[in-house]
Design brief:
The complex is a heterodimer of chains A (110) and B (121).
Chain A (H helix, E strand, L loop, with lengths): L8 E4 L5 E6 L10 E6 L6 E4 L13 E6 L2 E6 L8 E9 L4 E4 L3 E5 L1
Parallel strand pairs in A: 1-9
Antiparallel strand pairs in A: 2-6, 3-4, 3-7, 5-6, 7-8, 7-9
Chain B lengths: L2 E5 L3 E2 L5 E8 L8 E6 L5 E7 L6 E3 L7 E6 L4 E6 L8 E8 L8 E4 L3 E5 L2
Parallel strand pairs in B: 2-11
Antiparallel strand pairs in B: 1-3, 3-8, 4-5, 4-9, 5-6, 7-8, 9-10, 9-11
Classes of the chains: A mainly beta (110), B mainly beta (121).
């Protein structure tokens, strides 16, 4: 059972917009930055969004992040086949003194 | 260009020890915290431990506390993970990751290639 809650899976068709939710609590998302990672099959994770909504250089602006209270969301617009991957949210938890991850969401592009 | 090159993964018997290394380049190593994150077969990401840029502050997941030790050598741009009393449930791909600030509680912006640790008799 992960501290941060994500839907196990989601899907969309090319060109569509999908969102992935990440639910936490005041001790993690509510008081700290949220990070989003993309993990392609067989590869190491890659940073997609940092500090709730910032995009590293090289990440397309089709990817966007937001945070409200104890929840965060990752939105992917103009869905492409190469976006098919696992997506993880993460945040520091002040009560546990741990970095906590969501269980991951598998995105399928139909 | 930021690079993290991991080494040290292996097959080890339960109760055994292993040391993972992560040599980095492309940034001022001592200015950034570092973390280790693992991924068991078919499972999600699990944070293991983090160390501040100076090495003076460390944090551990409860699942490894007292058995694993993170350390860093800022003169050699390398972070280590010493794993003792290994258990079958420690079997995973272990990733070294650069934290995006000097604070251990921020997230990672670069990841190593991963190294397989298998604990089995």
């Amino acid at each position: 059972q992960s501290v941060l809650t994500q839907p196990p899976s989601t899907s969309g068709t090319p060109g569509q917009r999908v969102t992935i939710s990440c639910s936490g609590s005041n001790s993690n998302i509510g008081g700290n930055y949220v990070y989003w990672y993309q993990q392609l099959p067989g590869a190491a994770p890659k940073l997609l969004i940092y500090r709730n909504s910032q995009r590293p250089s090289g990440v397309p602006d089709r990817f966007s992040g937001s945070k409200s209270a104890t929840s965060a969301s990752l939105a992917i617009s103009g869905l492409r086949s190469e976006d098919e991957a696992d997506y993880y949210c993460a945040a520091w938890d002040d009560s546990l003194n741990d970095e906590v991850f969501g269980g991951g969401t598998k995105l399928t592009v139909l | 260009e930021v690079q993290l090159l991991q080494s040290g993964g292996d097959l080890v018997q339960p109760g055994g020890s292993l040391r993972l290394s992560c040599a980095v380049s492309g940034f001022t190593f001592s200015s950034y915290a570092m973390s280790w994150v693992r991924q068991a077969p078919g499972k999600g990401l699990e944070w293991v431990t983090s160390i501040s840029g100076s090495g003076g502050t460390t944090y551990y997941a409860d699942s490894v506390k007292g058995r694993f030790t993170i350390s860093r050598d800022n003169s050699k741009n390398t972070v280590f993970l010493q794993m003792n009393s290994l258990r079958a449930e420690d079997t995973a791909v272990y990733y070294c990751a650069k934290v995006e600030s000097s604070s251990a509680w921020d997230g990672a912006d670069y990841w190593g290639q991963g190294t397989q640790v298998t604990v089995s008799s």
